[in-house]
Specification:
By secondary structure, the chain is of the alpha/beta class. Among the domains are: 6-277, HUPs (Rossmann fold, 3-Layer(aba) Sandwich), CATH 3.40.50.620; 447-499, no CATH class. 46% of the residues lie in helices and 15% in strands. The protein is built from 16 helices and 17 strands. It has a four-stranded parallel sheet with strand order 4-3-11-12, sandwiched between helices. A four-stranded antiparallel sheet has the order 7-8-9-10. Strand 7 (148-151) and strand 8 form a beta hairpin. It binds adenosine monophosphate (AMP) and zinc ion. Residues 31, 33-34, 42-43, 45-46, 71, 246-247, 249-250, 277, 279-280, 287 line the site of adenosine monophosphate.
Length: 499
């Protein structure tokens, strides 16, 4: 905890020294998923990034209250002025299920995926639908303070008033209110109830077809999407807290509007630091379901996608994500994943060799000093805006040294046992505690035994197929499926993957 942390703050556009509001304690809010479909890999990247941040803060000894919400109402497709529909209601209507069944199904799926990526559970995971009274209260406070207005049962936030009073609106996203009013005017239908094009709904009157709706002082309706995060962060972290995070696509309008609402209700801005992760791309282009440039996490694990040549372990993915800075875009390609898989295995192998290493030097050697410096440098990388790629490179630097001693290129006399112990502690801390990478389940951790056995099974199945003994080949495939091993046939041969 006596280390100095610096993060890039989207609010000030600068790297700033981090100081918690209450010494030793950190309140962190991260926008969670909208649970109307399977979680996609882009979401996973953002949550893995914030998991790494959470883990590092915990590692430094901070007591962190990490709140990550579940959006189960209010996230509309399109703008409220153009007759948009709630994403969860729409899915419920299409699948003829209760909205809560939809939300529960995809929340379960999200949790399952987060476990595969070995992310820690947040301290609190509040749901928007469980906090309707808090959201109504917030709208009341915004109205009392003169930052909202009601029209026909809906309530809107007055962005122009906030801008005139404080200059705050647009600060996070770097947008200028005058531009926003012009830009969004085209979208505004004549019948719009908004006073200014940049205003946004905080309470929306529901029409008869709307399934999810609640009583309020203004109408039977539902909260605007941005409101839940303002209400829930205030409830669990207070009006003013340390860190607010999310994917970069949320800076505008979601986070800009959150700041507006918090100020409108509490007369103060919510978080001191705003951290944003960057987007995940697929083959250089934005991942998008509609144009086919997309891959689900499950497809990535099984290899069942035209974008990849084989399945990858979730830990390879996690490693791949941490190899780039969370604020940089990350391009997912098959070649990059193959390289990450090799890199991950190399690191884990070095770690295994490290467990058996015996240092023989009796006094502090030059190598000992170099190791101590590399370890300190890795922590400085993490202190500097959570620079995982740099810290990762330090691990590989040490892995090289371990391999040299193991191969006999460097004598064990050149290193002391205390330096070996220091490295062991460092590998444990950085790989497991901070990067959250798990050693088990990887092909490299069994010295190729599983690979060898699997090849034998694949060869036997091939033989059975060549002999037209399909009963045996099917039996092998089914038996493997029972233990979650999937075979994938292609022109190049058969691969296997543990789902
Ligand atoms: P959503 O479920 O769309 O509300 O998004 C949940 C989280 O995932 C938010 O923090 C988003 O910013 C983030 N997110 C969405 N798409 C991507 C992407 N392609 N890459 C990284 N993060 C994303
Ligand atoms: Zn949010």
């Amino acid at each position: 905890m006596n280390r100095t942390l610096k993060f890039f703050n989207t609010l000030t556009k600068e790297k700033e020294v981090f100081k918690p509001i209450v010494d030793g304690h950190i309140g962190m809010y991260v926008c969670g998923p909208t649970v109307y479909s399977d979680v996609h890999l882009g979401n996973c990247r953002t949550f893995v990034s914030f998991d790494m941040i959470y883990r590092y803060l915990l590692f430094l000894g901070y007591k962190v209250r990490y709140v990550r919400n579940i959006t189960d109402v209010g996230h509309l497709e399109g703008d409220v002025d153009t007759g948009a529909e709630d994403k969860i209601s729409k899915k419920a209507r299409l699948e003829q299920l209760e909205p809560m069944e939809i939300a529960q199904r995809y929340t379960n799926g999200f949790h399952e995926m987060m476990r595969k990526f070995n992310t820690l559970d947040p301290s609190i995971e509040p749901r928007a639908t469980g906090h309707i009274p808090e959201q109504i209260k917030m709208v009341e406070r915004i109205l009392e303070n003169g930052y909202g207005y009601e029209v026909n049962g809906s309530v809107y936030f007055d962005t122009l008033k906030l801008s005139k009073d404080t200059g705050l609106y647009g600060q996070l996203s770097g947008r200028i209110i005058e531009d926003l009013m012009v830009e969004t005017r085209d979208d505004l239908k004549n019948q719009s109830e908004k006073r200014h094009a940049s205003d946004f709904a905080i309470w929306i009157k529901a029409d008869d077809s709307h399934i999810m709706k609640w009583e309020s002082p203004w109408s039977v309706g539902f909260p605007g999407w941005h409101l839940e995060c303002s209400a829930m962060s205030t409830k669990y972290l207070g009006e003013h807290f340390d860190i607010h995070g999310g994917g970069g696509d949320l800076v505008f309008p979601h986070h800009e509007n959150e700041i507006a609402q918090n100020f409108g209700a509490c007369k103060c801005t919510p978080a001191n630091f705003w951290l944003h992760g960057n987007m995940l791309l697929l083959n250089g282009k934005k991942m998008s379901k509609s144009d086919g440039n997309s891959i689900t996490p499950v497809q990535l694990f099984t290899g069942d996608s035209p974008h990849i040549s084989k399945g990858y372990n979730p830990m390879t993915l996690r490693f791949f994500m941490l190899q780039s800075h969370f604020r940089s875009t990350l391009d997912l390609t098959d070649n990059a994943l193959l390289a990450a898989e090799k890199g991950y295995n190399r690191l884990m192998e070095a770690w295994q060799k490290l467990q058996l290493l015996e240092g023989k030097a009796t006094t502090e050697s030059d190598l000992d000093k170099e190791i101590a410096q590399t370890i300190e440098a890795a922590f400085q990388d993490m202190d500097d805006d959570f620079n995982t790629p740099k810290a990762m490179a330090r691990l590989f630097d040490l892995a090289g040294k371990i391999n040299s001693i193991n191969d006999g290129h460097v004598s064990a006399d050149a290193i002391s046992q205390s330096a070996v112990k220091q490295m062991q502690q460092f590998f444990h801390d950085m790989i497991s505690e901070i990067f959250g990478l798990i050693e088990t389940g990887d092909a490299s951790s069994n010295d190729g035994v599983v690979d060898g056995l699997m090849q034998l099974i694949i060869d036997l199945r091939q033989k059975a197929r060549a002999n037209k003994d399909f009963a045996t080949s099917d039996q092998i495939r089914d038996a493997l499926q029972e233990v979650n091993i999937q075979l994938k046939d292609s022109k190049e041969g058969t691969n296997w993957v543990k789902a």
